[in-house]
Structures are given as C-alpha cells and as structure tokens.
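Hi Prof. W.,

I finally got the Bleomycin hydrolase prediction working! I wasn't sure whether to trim anything, so I left the full sequence exactly as given:
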Amino acid sequence: MDLKSFEEELCQIVRSTVLKLEDEWDEMDLPKHQRETRRIAAYDGLSELGLSYVIPEDLPMLELDTYLKKKLSQLQDLKKKRLEELIELKGKDEMLCRYLGETPYQISRDLIPSEESLNMLKEHISEMEDEKVRRVETYQKLRIEVLHFVEQLEKPLEGETLLDIVCSVHPESSLTKNFLLDLRKLHNDLEFEVRELEAYSLEIREKITSLWNLLKISQEKRDSFLSTVPSHTYSCVKKMENQLIELKELRIQNMGKFIEELKLELQKCWEKCFVGDDQKKEFAYFNLDEISEEALEAYESEVLKWKKFYEKNIQIFETVEHLLSLFDTMQQLEERAKDPSRLFNTRGGALLQEEKERNKVKQELPHAQEQLILLCHKYSLENGLPFIIDGETVEDYLSRIWEYHDLQKEREKIERQSRTKPPITPKLAKGLTSKRVPQIVITPADSRKRCREVCDIDGKPSAKRIAKTPSGVHSGLQTPQKEFKTPITTRSVGKLKALSERNHFTPLQPRTNNLSHDESLQAPFSYKNFK
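And this is what came out:
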C-alpha cells in the first residue's frame, strides 16, 4: 500500500468515527457547547495515546455513559503511567548520555508517548549501557598499562588526565570519546618511550657484555652488577651508563691488547662471511699498526658490521657452507675411487655405503647450487647490488671452484702419463734434451655449465678455501672424462689374498735403469713360480 492510499483509508476511518459520534450526540440531544467539549476531549485522548476510539453499538444511553466514563478513567490512568515512565526513562537516558558524551534520545516531555516511542527509548538506553560497559573495560585496560609505563619510566605524575587515571579505577566525571582518545594518546606516547628505553638499555647491555669479554671480567662480578639492574627503568639505565664509562676507561688502558683480539675476531667474521681481498682492503686499519682510540672504535664498528651482515644473510651463508660440504664429500669419494683395495675390503657394506653417499651428493649438489643462485639473486633485487662471495659473484665463484677441480684432475692425469711413458732419449727424438719437456695442450672446460651440474665423482682438491687459479692456466682446462679401471679378473679370492700377503712381506727389489716404478708393475710377466 502506497502513502496516498494509506492517507485516504485513514481519513475515511476518522470521518466515519466522527459521524458515529455526531449521531450518538444527536440521539442524546446534547447541546452544542457539550458536543464541542466532548469532541475536543476525544480527539486529544486519541492523539495522545495513539489508540483507536471504538464506540460499542446497540447500547442504551445509560450503559453507554457508564462505559465512556470507565473508558475515560482507564485512559487517564494509562496517560499518568506513561508520563511517569517517560520521565524515569528520560532521566536515565540523559544521565548515560552526559557520562558518555552522547546525544540523548529526542522525545518531547509535553506529549504523552505512544508504546512504540517508549520501546524505542528503552532500546536507546540499552545501547548506551552496553557502550558504557565497553568504554569502562577499555579505560581499565589502558589505565593498568599506563600505570605500568609510568612506573617503568619513573616519571612524576603530571597532567590532569594522568592524575585522573591514577586516582580513580572508574572515572566519575565522564568517559567521553575525547577522554578515551586523550587516554589512548597518552598510552601510545608512554609506550613509545618505554620501547625506546628498552632498546637503549639492551644496546648498553650488549656493549657492556662485549667489554666484559674483552677485559676478561669474572662471571661473579658480572652477576653482581646485573643483580643491581634487573629491569629497563631510568635508574637502571643510568647505572649501566656509569658502568660503561668505567669499562671504556679500562679499555683505553689496554688498547693494544684489545685491538689484537678484535683483529682476530674480525678475521673470523670475514671467514664466516666469505669476504674477498678487495673488501678486506677497504678496512684501512687492518694492515696498520696504529694503536689509538679511533682505531679501536673502527675495529669495533667493523666487527659489529659483519656480525649484523651475517645474521641478516645467514640463509645464504648456510647454503654456501652446505654446498662446500657436499663438494668436499664429492672429492673424498673421488679419492676413494682411486684406491683399488676398497674392492676387496667389502665388510660391513662399505661399497654400498659409498654408493649411497655418491648418489646423495649427485642429487643434493645441483640443488644446493641452484638454491644459492636464487638466494643471491633475491638479495640483488632487494639491495640493488650483487652478493659477493670471496670477492666474486656467485656464478664466478662456483665457476672457479669447478675450474680448479678440473685443473687438479688434469694435473694428476698428466703426472700419471709422465710416469707410464719411457724416458725420451736423443735417439728417439732428435733435438730434445732431458731438460726440455714437450708441452701438453689442454682444451678449455665448460666450467660455468658445471656450476649447475654434477659430473662423475673422481677428483681431489678441497673446496673450502680454494685459491684463485693462476692467470696462465685459468682458462686452459679440459673437462675430465670418466676413467676406465682395469677389469677384475675371475681368479679365486684365495689366490688374490695370497698374492697380497706375499707382496706385503716380500721386500721390493731395486728398480732397473730402464723402467720406472709404474712400468715395472705393468710389465707382463708370469706368476707361475710365485709362492
């Protein structure tokens, strides 16, 4: 039903009601002034109470008069009751709104409220009571924290807001939004001061601990002092500042000793962070013998810088350590592969365990290299600079490790070949002397590709701290190929063991002039007379 239809229906109801009243008054033969009085009373009562006025039909005049008087008395009682309830609710609402700083519910005291208006006023009061409970809880929580901050900061009680907080658990004046905003601002300011004080206190404690370590202060003296500064209050911070001044004076008296200790500590930090020579040269005091307050502070600052750098990028350094550990394991396995005696000592599943380690390295080494490259790339994106390992980018660092590894294997190969070949005489090669050795050409190896791949395991050098390859042989490497081992014959184990024992106890004969040691071992001869 739209508004226009509702208005028309309402007007029709009012019109019909008025006509009925007029008919009743005509039957009662009421004079004009009485009709006007009753008309006004009826309209006022209906409008004030919001009730419909229904006149029973077919009632005698006396009964109708009695009914109307009774109805009038009921309406007057209802009016009185509603007015009393309105005054009570209105007073409660105004008190709550004044305490909370809110606007009271708008309702006139002169008009008699309808039942719906009273219900809406009650709902508004209920909302204000809930809001009061929430604000009181917020106030009490902030109050406890503010008092804790004041105690920790050891500040005097100043300001009206702070005094009100300390003196009352429940504020009697008001809990307005502005009051809570001021309280929250005070809370945030004090919290910021406390956090700054704690950070400063921890910084001083760290400096004191560092100086204690340098001065070799006993644990008993340390505990004795720490018991006097159990918290981060202003008084405790002041005591720590005085202690720091005393320790700095002792440090100056032992400056030379401390510089040497810091130099050793700095070397350890450089080793953990894989610092290259160029980066080390940036610290000018390291190669100077200067003993001064400036040098001491410079060493302390440099040590602290690299410690923070290590902690910030610990994931990268742990990955490098893991990679080098796998690389060393690979070289150990390559070294074992050169020992043929391991094929006969198979107790405890040694060969099986060796094969498991070999497969593990082949699987984890490429993954570790890839992970290291990704972490260094992420560092470059975040800082705008490449991550330097031992003075090189990660790609160059990995390439150098593999190049050095290949170079060592190539050198071993050349040494084996030089031992197995007969010595060159003037008859075999004219123009060559014993002092002149033919040059062996080595093809370059694709070591950069091997930064991401793991070759067959047979090599030697340690990768923890590999020196840079000399410039003359840096790029002349040959990718090592898998060596073919002499196939094991099908002789019985007993004969092999006997041969081993006989060779072990039989003294070696002097070498001939024409054969080297390796050539004598490889010379074909019969074992028929061997016992």
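Residues 12-124 form one domain. Does that look reasonable to you?

Thanks,
D.
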